[in-house]
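thread: overnight batch results

M.L. [08:02]
morning all. the overnight job finished for the chain we discussed friday. pasting input first so we're all looking at the same thing
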Amino acid sequence: MRRRYSNGAQEDAGIDMTPMLDIVFIMLIFFIVTTSFIKEAGIDVNRPTANSAQVVKKGNIMIAVSDTGAVWIDKRRVEVGAVRANVERLKAENPEGAVVIQADKKSESGIVVEVMDQVRLAGVYSISVSAREP
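M.L. [08:03]
and the structure it wrote out:
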């Protein structure tokens, strides 16, 4: 069987992948730069409801206080006295980080206040208390 086209014509018919690869790399860089990671506290708490609850987008240091009074940071249980050191470490990793305290609705307010005090002593003054919308 005889071919209709020469080998030079077949090479020109290929798809140039260079622009697509450029777009993929630009999108990859965009997602790497704009992604923020939220560190989980380590436990799920039954948060209280509040009519004035708002979404806080900058909170990336999560501290959980369970109904038994246990304090969790970065998926580890810590004592209240160790909250300051842990928050200082997490703040060093992300200097613009804010703290969100997820307190169970059955937790004691005294422990929550102690945790908030430790966070302020660590130099973080942007503290939010997590709540659900009703």
